[in-house]
Amino acid sequence: MDCILGVGGRDNETIAKVFELTEVQRENLKNWSAELKVRNDILEDKAKFLMKKNEESSPEVLLAVSKKYATIMDSMRQNIRMMDKRLLSTFTESQYDKYVKMCDQLTLRPIYINRSVNEN
Questions:
Q1: What is the number of structural domains in the chain?
Q2: Does residue 115 sit within a domain?
Q3: What tens digit of pLDDT does each residue of 80-95 get?
Q4: Residue 79, Cβ density class (10 Å: 0-12 exposed, 13-18 middle, ≥19 buried)
Q5: 26/57 Cα distance (integer angstroms)
Q6: Which domain of life is it from (predicted)?
Q7: How far is Cα 26 from Cα 103, in angstroms, rounded to an integer?
Q8: Domain span at residue 80?
Q9: Which of 8, 27, 30, 102 is geometrically suited to a Cys-Cys bond with 36, CB 3.0 to 4.6 A?
Q10: In a domain, 118, yes or no
Q11: Please, which pLDDT band fits residue 55 given cuts at 50, 70 and 90?
């Protein structure tokens, strides 16, 4: 299982404190959290509409709807991972090492970052 930071969740301040983020990293965290919220709010609205539209459908239709719903949920998880990866790409080597050590302690798989590419 991936070791998710949770950018955009309830723990942004914890992320900032634990990894001792710079002001630029804090600003990125804030902006990417807002972007994630917009992206996932749209997907959440699609999921709600899908469920509402099909609440009295036949079992066959509900099966198809469940697959569409799962696809929407997968997209939301991909958005979360993408924002985490963005933030991780701005980490210094010591911040990233700390992240990897924490993931190891939790027996989770760290998100690999290509250190030669940086969005900043």
A1: 1
A2: no
A3: 999 999 999 999 999 9
A4: buried
A5: 46
A6: Bacteria
A7: 21
A8: 12-105
A9: 8
A10: no
A11: confident
